[in-house]
Automatic annotation (TrEMBL):
InterPro entries: Acyl_CoA_acyltransferase, GNAT_dom, N-acetyltransferase. This is Diamine N-acetyltransferase. GO terms for molecular function: diamine N-acetyltransferase activity. Its EC number is 2.3.1.57. It is an enzyme of class 2 (transferase). It comes from Methylacidimicrobium cyclopophantes. The gene is speG/SAT. Residues 6-171 form the N-acetyltransferase domain.
Length: 178
């Protein structure tokens, strides 16, 4: 799958400065889990090291999202692998200056395509806080199906939030454009 405005590549140590620049946004970190997003500038280095190591060990496919025309890191997309069950959980974060431009959707589409075509996954799942409208719109664009709600599953900023569960099966990928 050729992506138009971005390309995906493995995370590298050279990404650290950009990860630091884009991390720690309170409006991003509340909506994702710490494993998906570096919650602070101080955690950026350990976050990056952890994802590079997880990829080397075959536990994830952790990819940098890079603007094609500027060769500029703007976020990451991650597939957390469960090989025994031929499935993965997808997670994505895009730095705030690049929100609402479709980069997350494009990155996730590329990662899902890789999961089904290269890794031969049977299913890709996603979890989203019910109040994260941007991610909910993205999941709909990706053709992911609503599977359920984990009621008041996470405590965020002192309030309990519902966590919504979505999934896409390999056999559904043609209708989703993958």
């Amino acid at each position: 799958m050729v992506l138009e405005r971005i390309y995906l590549r493995p995370l590298e140590e050279k990404d650290l400065e950009r990860v630091r620049m884009l991390s720690g946004d309170p409006d991003c970190s509340w909506a994702t889990r710490p494993i998906t997003y570096p919650e602070s500038v101080q955690s950026a280095s350990s976050w990056l090291d952890e994802h590079i190591t997880m990829t080397k060990k075959g536990k994830s496919v952790s990819l940098a999202v890079v603007l094609r025309d500027q060769d500029l890191f703007i976020g990451s997309v991650l597939l957390f692998l469960e090989p025994l069950h031929q499935r993965a959980e997808i997670g994505c974060w895009i730095g705030r200056p690049y929100w609402s431009r479709g980069y997350g959707t494009e990155a996730c589409a590329g990662a899902i395509h890789h999961g089904f075509e290269v890794l031969r996954l049977h299913k890709v799942s996603a979890y989203c806080v019910s109040t994260n409208t941007g991610s909910l719109k993205m999941l709909a664009k990706l053709g992911m199906k609503w599977e359920g709600c984990l009621r008041e599953h996470l405590k965020i900023r002192g309030c309990f939030e519902d966590l919504l569960v979505y999934g896409l099966l390999a056999e559904e990928r043609t209708t989703a454009g993958f």
